[in-house]
């Protein structure tokens, strides 16, 4: 192992380290911008293009980018020499020279890494003036792309091309005009973009942000004629606290509910109720397919980014996914029918708002076919980050909020619903119910360890009544692409596959508080989800009393005519 010296401190580091790795290994710091490493999912973005991590190396004439300089025996590194600081400042000033100077009204204000660097490097003036290019903005239902703010870090391109294998974003043009965008300047809506939002999750500036619906949500809350119900996705409760100073993985369910009440929503319901409902329909469908020679494997269908990927990339496999709608959409359909009837409210006056960790949910809510209630089932989707903005705007002290409970009848859920929020959770939840329905026996240990973890693809075998049921779990669309190709070529055989587009599942969604390249944050949210599940008195969806009630009072049984109409959908090439 080579010995090197960093800021007068001698250290021994592995041979494959870069100077940046070495600095980090001793708790040191060098600023970075384009560099990003999500080790647990095998993603590294290292174009060394921003030149922000320049360091001085004794005996070398030129400064070196720490992220792309391998360590070598005897290297003497100074991370903060005057020369290095000056070079970093110049690099950032040059980036700012053709960057729109509208920070005060930029959606990324306060979260922008370029802004943070300018502050850290004490940039108070700029001798450089670049040519301001005028690229057109691209506004979709989920994402706003402003290429004028692109700093060519290529992080979005890495997530889109390497992790998701969608390949929508790439660097085009040269010089001041160079930006990352879809080919031929197409809008995202006219490409195979899945709206997974992973480009947004890693963009350091305001070049890629979610489309906000905060104004529309305030309008309906303030409209006395509207009855506004809100649902919260499983992954929001373990991340929202980060926006208010809590450690990642803090469980904030009770405060989340009371914040929504203070904001003025009429009923605070839970997507988790609908996740239990999804399991009823999905596990029933799985049992039917397994016992009656139906199409296998059955793919889960609750992640809208994944569904769109399948429709674009594997149109010949559209028989594979379960026809069950996602929990978000099941919720909307029963809120405007079952709940409307019970509460005696005309469904035209009910507005359904979702709080989601996901950007594709915005796109999903707008899909034409998702109107089983006779109305658009879900009206507005806002992200965890947007909700935090609403809470701040309202002057609510989140930390001082009391812990409150969800409303009923759409607020009760089991531990099986909670784990939907992390990779492997939907498969595990479905197995908890399918096992008992198929065997007629009680499941002892409800935790299926083999489908847990962060491997891109996990395959587990579960013995169900003499049949070895093989369950595949994939997170990241590139991983599922490999799995589906193997299945198509007959190399792998599985009965059920869970797919989530985002790293770690919804906990790593594109609408969650920014992780700034730290995958540990996603892991801590996952641990919190598992803790909520472990502490729930009921951990199987089919044992949820409110779910039993909705079938008794309204739906009949899984896949009844009514359930099929409201809770199932179809897919399109
Ligand atoms: Fe998800 Fe789902 S788990 S898709 O990741 O099935 O967004 O959290 O709400 O619909 O329940 C997201 C999360 C979410 C749905 C559920
Ligand atoms: Fe690519 Fe996902 Fe961004 Fe679309 S939303 S451009 S698929 S990373």
TrEMBL record:
Residues in 4Fe-4S ferredoxin-type domain copies: 141-171, 184-213
Keywords annotated in UniProt: 4Fe-4S, Iron, Iron-sulfur, Metal-binding, Repeat
Residue ranges of the TM segments: none
Residue span(s) of domain 2Fe-2S ferredoxin-type: 2-83
4Fe-4S His(Cys)3-ligated-type domain sequence ranges: 83-122
MF annotations from Gene Ontology: 4 iron, 4 sulfur cluster binding; ferredoxin hydrogenase activity; iron ion binding
SUPFAM superfamilies: 2Fe-2S ferredoxin-like (SSF54292), 4Fe-4S ferredoxins (SSF54862), Fe-only hydrogenase (SSF53920)
Record NCBIfam families: FeFe_hydrog_A (TIGR02512), FeFe_hydrog_A6 (NF040763)
Stated name of the protein: NAD(P)-dependent iron-only hydrogenase catalytic subunit
Organism the protein comes from: Marinitoga hydrogenitolerans (strain DSM 16785 / JCM 12826 / AT1271)
């Amino acid at each position: 192992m080579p010995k090197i010296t960093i800021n007068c401190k001698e250290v021994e580091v592995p041979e494959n380290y870069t100077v940046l790795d070495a600095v980090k290994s001793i708790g040191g710091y060098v600023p970075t911008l384009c560099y990003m490493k999500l080790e647990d999912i095998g993603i590294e973005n290292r174009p060394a293009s921003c030149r922000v991590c320049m360091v001085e190396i004794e005996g070398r004439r030129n400064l070196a980018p720490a992220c792309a300089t391998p360590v070598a025996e005897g290297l003497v590194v100074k991370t903060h020499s005057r020369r290095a600081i000056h070079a970093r400042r110049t690099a950032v000033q040059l980036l700012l020279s053709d960057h729109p100077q509208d920070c005060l009204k930029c959606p990324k204000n306060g979260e922008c890494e370029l802004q943070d660097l300018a502050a850290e490097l004490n940039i108070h003036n700029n001798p450089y003036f670049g040519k301001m290019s005028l690229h057109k903005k691209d506004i979709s239902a989920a994402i706003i792309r402003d290429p004028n703010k692109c700093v060519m870090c290529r992080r979005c391109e890495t997530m889109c091309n390497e992790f998701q294998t969608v390949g929508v974003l790439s660097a085009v043009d040269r010089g001041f005009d160079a930006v990352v965008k879809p080919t031929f300047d197409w809008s995202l809506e006219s490409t195979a973009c899945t709206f997974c939002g992973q480009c947004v999750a890693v963009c350091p500036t305001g070049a890629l942000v979610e489309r906000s619906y905060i104004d529309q949500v305030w309008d309906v809350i303030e409209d006395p004629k509207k009855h506004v119900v809100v649902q919260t996705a499983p992954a929001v409760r373990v991340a929202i606290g980060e926006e208010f100073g809590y450690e990642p993985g803090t469980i904030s369910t009770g405060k989340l509910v009371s914040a929504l009440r203070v904001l003025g929503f009429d009923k605070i319901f839970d997507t988790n109720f609908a996740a239990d409902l999804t399991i009823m329909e999905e596990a029933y469908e799985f049992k039917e397919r397994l016992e009656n020679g139906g199409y296998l494997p059955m793919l889960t269908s609750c992640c809208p980014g994944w569904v769109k990927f399948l429709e674009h990339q594997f149109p010949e496999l559209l028989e594979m996914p379960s026809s069950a709608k996602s929990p978000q959409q099941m919720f909307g359909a029963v809120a405007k029918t079952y709940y409307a009837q019970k509460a005696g409210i005309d469904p035209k006056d009910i507005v359904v708002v979702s709080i989601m960790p996901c950007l594709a949910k915005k796109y999903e809510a707008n899909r034409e076919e998702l109107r089983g209630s006779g109305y658009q089932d879900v009206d507005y989707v806002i992200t965890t980050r947007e909700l935090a903005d609403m809470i701040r705007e309202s002057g609510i002290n989140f930390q001082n909020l009391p812990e409150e409970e969800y409303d009923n009848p759409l607020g009760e859920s089991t531990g099986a619903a909670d784990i939907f929020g992390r990779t492997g959770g939907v498969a595990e939840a479905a197995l908890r119910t399918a096992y008992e329905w198929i065997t007629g026996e009680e499941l002892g240990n409800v935790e299926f360890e083999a489908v847990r973890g962060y491997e891109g693809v996990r395959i587990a075998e579960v013995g169900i009544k003499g049949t070895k049921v093989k369950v595949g779990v994939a997170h990241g669309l590139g991983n599922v692409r490999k799995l589906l190709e193997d299945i198509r070529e007959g190399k792998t055989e599985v009965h059920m596959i869970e797919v989530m587009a985002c790293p770690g599942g919804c906990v790593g969604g594109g609408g969650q508080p920014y992780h700034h390249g730290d995958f540990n944050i996603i892991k801590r949210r996952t641990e919190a989800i598992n803790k909520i599940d472990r502490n729930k008195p009921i951990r199987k969806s089919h044992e949820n009393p409110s779910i039993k009630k909705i079938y008794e009072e309204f739906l009949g049984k899984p896949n009844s005519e009514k359930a099929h109409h409201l809770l199932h959908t179809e897919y399109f090439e």
